[in-house]
Amino acid sequence: MMRSLYSGVSGLKAHQTKMDVIGNNIANVNTTAFKSQSITFSELMYQTTQAASGANAETGRAGTNARQIGLGVTTGAISTSIETTGATQSTGNPFDLKITGEALFIVSNGQDTFFTRDGSFYVDGQGNLAMTSNGYTVQGWQVRDGNIAKDTVSALRIMSAENMTYPPEATTEAYVSGIIDKNDPSVSSEAGKIVSVNFFDSLGYAYTAKLSMKATGTEGMYTVELADVLDSNGDAIDTTNIQLGAVKTVEDAQNLTLANGYTINGTTLTYLDDAGNSQNINLAGELTAEQQEIVANAYGYTTYEEFAKLYIANPDGTTTTLGALIEANNLASAISPDDGSIAVAGKQITGGVVQYNTSTGQIQSVNGLTNNLELVLSFGDEAGSAFEDINIDFSPSSNYNNNGTSTISAVSGDTDGLGAGRKLGEMSGVSIQNDGMIYASYDNGQTKLLGQIAVATFANASGLQKEGDNLYSATMNSGEFDGIGLDVTADGGYMTTGVLEMSNVDLSSEFTEMITTQRGFQANSRIITVSDTLLEELVNLKR
């Protein structure tokens, strides 16, 4: 009688434990990444009143079974359904992560290592990726020489001081593409067709080089010269040490005649000033800068620089630029005494000569070379200079009829985008890929690998021990953590950003279990009351 009483008590205790498990499951129905638990019962033990006996062949007596009386129930096991994935909850937070697969995140409190499916992370004040609930740091692999080093896991500090900016880089490559049309008025003008090349120095300062392309007297041939270099404020910088290409002689014979209002008598140039007064310039004497401009204007040039590049052929086969003659106070020697004209054999430029094929319109040569279609914008070798030489490729350009409009333009970097240079970049965002790779993006168009979130898997994930705060720790039955971790994609899993894994508690199953547990508890309580009644009858025998 006492045995049934204690069996009923054990039943009450076992069902109460089951209710505790059910209650915990339901309480955590909205806990991020909570894994539900289930309980199984086991028979407690048995009292054997008679052992089993075997059959006796000699007497012909059959065997008998053992007579055993059970002494109740006990908790067999409490299992965690850790490998069952919960539903997906969208949060929009880029640092919220959900693992699809059986892996777990690795986190640390600085001393101990824990594991979790709760991917609600944030970046703390030190730039560490951490759990929002308790501040434990997320573990992963660091970057060495631009690549992930998959050795011992450590805290991922993704917003350290060195990661907040991306270093600048000087421009080393550029290319010119588009169409240059010989009927475009600008290519025949004194200023030429201006092609702007934007570039950076090694400190990240922006500049613009203005290249001037001009048609020559030869079909399909254009000169390219450096017109100016401007800083980011639009101010011209000193170009003394800056040079495009080399000094080239361009054969372009022409006869310069005096403009209206100018006459030459001997070595004297006569013109009217702004007040209408007649003025004279001695072309055989030293000319001031203002007089040099006036002489250039007399022959149709708005700037002295372009006029000075023109050259004449000497009787001995050499050439002399008009600028050199003016420097020698001997410009008059090049002027015809009959009409004041100058027979020009061509011009000398510092730059390049681009030749296009007149039948195909494709580029043919640069400075006479067919195997090198680049011009080098050189900044000299001055010590401490932040500039680097820029190779400007003209091969993508062409010479077609485009209704008198040239579309030729320059782009920094080569055709693969390399060597474009950049300014100093400020971090503008962080993204996490589905393999756990963390990248930073910067406002100079660059991206940088910051690290990779590592994960852990276990031979028996159900053997992990719950530690609260959505954490688990390894046990002898789960398998040990090797301290290195795995790539989440190694077993076919992946991470999703902006979402979290919800609890995998199934309320319909929990309420059903609650009903059966309640009935079991009631039935066991009846065992106790009936056993008590029997004991009461036994006591009453004394009356």
Question: What would a concise description of this structure say?
Answer:
This protein has 543 residues and is an alpha+beta fold. It has six helices and 38 strands. Helices cover 16% and strands 38% of the residues.
Attribute tags:
about 550 residues; Tick-borne Encephalitis virus Glycoprotein, domain 1; 8-stranded antiparallel sheet; 38 strands
Count the domains: 4
Q: Helix segment count?
A: 6
CATH architecture tag of the largest domain: Sandwich
Number of strands: 38
Question: What percentage of amino acids are in beta strands?
Answer: 35-45%
Poorly predicted tracts of residues: none
CATH topology of the largest domain: Tick-borne Encephalitis virus Glycoprotein, domain 1
Explain this structure.
There is one protein chain. Strands 7, 8, 11, 12, 13, 31, 32, 33 and 34 form a 9-stranded antiparallel β-sheet that branches. Strands 15, 16, 17, 19, 23, 24, 25 and 26 form an 8-stranded antiparallel β-sheet that branches. Strands 14, 18, 27, 28, 29 and 30 form a 6-stranded mixed β-sheet that branches. A hairpin with a 2-residue loop joins strand 35 (465-468) and strand 36. By secondary structure, the chain is an alpha+beta fold. The chain is 16% helix and 38% strand. It has 4 domains: 2-83 and 505-540, no CATH class; 88-166 and 425-501, no CATH class; 168-256 and 341-423, Tick-borne Encephalitis virus Glycoprotein, domain 1, CATH 2.60.98.20; 258-301 and 318-338, no CATH class. The protein contains 6 helices and 38 strands. Helix 1 (2-27) packs antiparallel against helix 6 (507-540). The relative contact order is 0.20.
